[in-house]
Write a structure and sequence with these properties.
The complex is a heterodimer of chains A (169) and B (332). By secondary structure, chain A is of the alpha+beta class. Chain A has one domain (16-141): SCP2 sterol-binding domain (Nonspecific Lipid-transfer Protein, Chain A), CATH 3.30.1050.10. Chain A has helices spanning 16-41, 45-49, 98-105, 111-116, 126-137, 143-150, 152-165, and strands at 57-61, 67-71, 78-82, 92-96, 121-124. In chain A, α6 packs across α7 (152-165). Chain B has 332 residues and is an alpha/beta fold. Chain B contains ten helices and 15 strands. Chain B has helices at 13-22, 47-59, 78-90, 100-109, 126-136, 149-158, 181-186, 264-269, 284-302, 324-327, and strands spanning 5-9, 26-29, 63-68, 94-97, 114-117, 140-142, 162-170, 202-206, 212-216, 219-224, 239-242, 245-250, 257-259, 274-277, 321-322. In chain B, α1 packs parallel to α2 and α3 packs across α4. Classes of the chains: A alpha+beta (169), B alpha/beta (332). Chain A binds chain B through residues 1, 6, 8-9, 48-50, 104, 107-113, 115-118, 121-127, 129-135, 137-140, and chain B through 11-15, 17, 40-43, 198-200, 202-206, 208, 210, 212, 224, 227-232, 255, 281-286, 289, 314-319.
C-alpha cells in the first residue's frame, strides 16, 4: 500500500512553490537536530515501530507550506521538510492542523478522538500509523518542550507563542 | 457495600503510570502477543516492562490485572501458560481469563492469585458464572454489556463472586468471545489471535468530495460524509446497503460509546464491585482524562456528594454516547 501527499484539496497559489522550498530549507537544520535528539533520548521508541522503522511517513500539517518526511530508521534517520510536490511516495500519510499533530506527539490529544472528529486523516498503511502512534504514546514527557529546550529561552518563547496562536479546541 | 473499585486500561507502560497517577485502583494490561484481546501493533508490554510496571503500581497502592483473555488454539497452550507463569513471577494481582483451559492451569499452578472472568467468556447467567466459580475459583466476573441494572441486581444475589461492569468506552454487544466477523474477512481470529479488525487489513480512502471510506480486507464497511463523525473500522459497526435499506444502515451496532457516568450510584446500589474503563488501545490523553473524571465521580459518590462528571463526549466513538442496555433494552 502506498500513499502520497496528494494535494487534492489544495489549490495552488501564485508563488506557492518557491515559498514552500524556501521555508523547507530554512527549517531543515532544526528538524535534523530534533530527530537526532529525540532518538537519543527515547531509544525504546524504535522497538514499538517494529518492521515500520523503514517505512516512509508523510506528516502533513495542512496549514504549513511544506510537509514532513519521516523515516524512523535508527541506523539512518530521516526527518526533513519537503515541498508537497516533491514529497516521496509514502507508506503512510497523516494529515491535520500543525498544533493537533504536535499535541498528538505529546499525547495531549487523543488520536482516536481526533480521527472520530475528522480533524485527523490517515491514508496508506494503517498498521504503520498505529505503530507510530503507540511508539510515541509510550514516551514520557513532552517532545515539543524537549525540542524547545534545545534552543533555550528563544525556543521556549516560540513554543509558548505557537500554543497561544492556536485557539483551544 | 460495593467498593466501586476503578479498573483502568493501559496499552503501554507510560499509560499504566498515567492511569495510576490519575487515580486508578487497578490497571489491566497484556503482553505483546496473542494471549490478550488487544493484540495491536506497537501496543502492550514486554515481560521486563510488566515487571517495572507492577513495581510502580504497587508502590502507589494500585493493583495490576493481567489480561490473558483469548482462547488458545487446540494443542497450542504453551504461550498462555508461559504468560501466566511470567505474570505470577512478577506479582500481578489477578489474571483476567476467558478460556477454561487457561483458568484451570492458573487455578492449579498459581492458586494464590485471583482469577477474574473476562467479558470474553460471555457469562451472563447465574448458572454460567457459578460454573466458573465452583470449578476454577473465579473471584470476579466481568459482565457482558447486555444486562439491565435490575438484572445485574438479581444476578448478584445468586452468585458467590464480585461483579465488574464496563462504565465507559466500547459498546460491544456481540456475544463476546464468539464473534467471527473479522475472521471471516481477514483470516485472523479476534478470539484466538487477539485482534479485531487488524490494522494491516484496514485502509482509509479519501474521496474528492471530502468523504472517507473505511475498508477492511478490501471490503468497504462504511463511508462517512465530509462533515460526518467517524467510527472504528469494525464489521459490527459497519453501515451496509440492503434491499430493504438501499440508503445504507447500521445492521449490527452503531459507532457509539458506552458512558454510564449518570448510573454509577445505581450500579453501586445493585452490588457492582468494580467499574471498568475500556480502551487499552487508546492514548495516554484518553486514559488521563477518563480516569480523572471517573475517579472524581466515584469519590464524590463515596462521600455522599452528587457526582459532577466531566463531559467526555469528545472522546467517544462517533462522538456519540449511550447508556445502552444498562438503562433499557430498548436503548436503540
Amino acid at each position: 500500500m502506498t500513499a502520497n501527499t496528494d494535494p487534492v484539496h489544495r489549490p495552488r497559489l501564485p508563488g506557492q512553490r518557491p515559498v514552500a522550498r524556501l521555508s523547507a530549507a530554512i527549517v531543515q537544520p532544526v528538524l535534523s537536530r530534533v530527530v537526532r535528539r529525540v532518538a537519543k533520548s527515547h531509544p525504546s521508541l524504535f522497538a514499538r515501530l517494529g518492521p515500520h522503522q523503514k517505512t516512509d511517513y508523510i506528516i502533513d500539517p495542512v496549514e504549513l507550506p511544506f510537509a514532513l518526511h519521516l523515516r524512523p530508521d535508527p541506523q539512518a534517520l530521516i526527518f526533513r521538510a519537503v515541498p508537497r510536490d516533491l514529497a516521496p511516495v509514502a507508506g503512510a500519510a497523516i494529515r491535520g492542523r500543525f498544533m493537533l499533530l504536535l499535541e498528538l506527539v505529546d499525547s495531549e490529544e487523543d488520536g482516536d478522538a481526533a480521527f472520530f472528529s475528522r480533524d485527523l486523516e490517515v491514508t496508506g498503511d494503517t498498521e504503520a500509523v498505529v505503530r507510530l502512534r503507540n511508539a510515541l504514546d509510550d514516551v514520557d514527557g513532552s517532545i515539543a518542550e524537549e525540542t524547545a529546550n534545545m534552543f533555550g529561552a528563544p525556543g521556549r518563547a516560540i513554543l509558548a507563542r505557537l500554543r497561544r496562536s492556536y485557539p483551544a479546541t | 457495600m460495593s467498593l466501586a473499585e476503578l479498573i483502568c486500561p493501559a496499552g503501554t507502560p507510560a499509560a499504566l503510570r498515567t492511569a495510576v497517577d490519575a487515580g486508578a485502583d487497578a490497571v489491566y494490561c497484556g503482553f505483546q502477543d496473542a494471549t490478550n484481546a488487544r493484540n495491536f501493533p506497537g501496543l502492550n508490554f514486554t515481560p521486563a516492562e510488566l515487571a517495572e510496571s507492577v513495581a510502580y503500581a504497587h508502590a502507589k497502592g494500585a493493583k495490576v490485572l493481567l489480561a490473558l483473555n483469548t482462547y488458545p488454539p487446540a494443542g497450542k497452550v504453551d504461550l498462555w501458560r508461559q504468560a501466566a507463569d511470567t505474570g505470577a513471577r512478577f506479582g500481578v494481582d489477578a489474571f483476567i481469563v476467558a478460556d477454561m483451559g487457561v483458568a484451570d492451569y492458573i487455578a492449579r499452578t498459581h492458586p494464590g492469585i485471583r482469577l477474574h472472568l473476562s467479558v470474553q467468556a460471555a457469562a451472563s447467567s447465574p448458572e454460567a458464572i457459578r460454573y466458573y466459580c465452583e470449578n476454577f475459583g473465579v473471584k470476579r466476573v466481568v459482565l457482558p454489556r447486555i444486562l439491565t441494572i435490575p438484572e445485574i441486581r438479581e444476578i448478584r444475589k445468586e452468585i458467590p463472586c464480585e461483579i465488574e461492569t464496563f462504565i465507559f468506552g466500547n459498546h460491544g454487544l456481540m456475544v463476546e468471545g464468539r464473534c467471527s466477523l473479522t475472521n471471516y474477512l481477514t483470516g485472523q481470529s479476534t478470539n484466538m489471535d487477539g485482534v479485531c479488525s487488524p490494522a494491516s487489513d484496514v485502509e482509509y480512502v479519501r474521496h474528492d468530495d471530502g468523504s472517507m471510506s473505511s475498508q477492511l480486507a478490501g471490503f468497504t464497511i462504511d463511508c462517512f460524509g465530509p462533515d460526518e463523525k467517524a467510527g472504528y473500522p469494525t464489521i459490527c459497526k459497519g453501515r451496509y446497503a440492503a434491499p430493504h435499506r438501499p440508503e445504507g444502515y447500521y445492521a449490527f451496532e452503531e459507532p457509539i460509546s458506552l458512558n454510564l457516568s449518570r448510573l454509577l450510584p445505581e450500579l453501586i446500589e445493585a452490588g457492582v464491585h468494580a467499574f471498568k474503563i475500556e480502551g487499552r488501545q487508546r492514548s495516554k490523553s484518553y486514559v488521563r482524562n477518563v480516569v480523572k473524571a471517573f475517579r472524581a465521580a466515584v469519590d464524590d459518590i463515596r462521600a455522599g456528594r452528587e457526582a459532577n462528571i466531566a463531559d467526555l463526549v469528545a472522546l467517544t466513538e462517533g462522538q456519540k454516547q449511550t447508556q445502552g442496555a444498562f438503562e433499557t433494552k430498548k436503548w436503540r
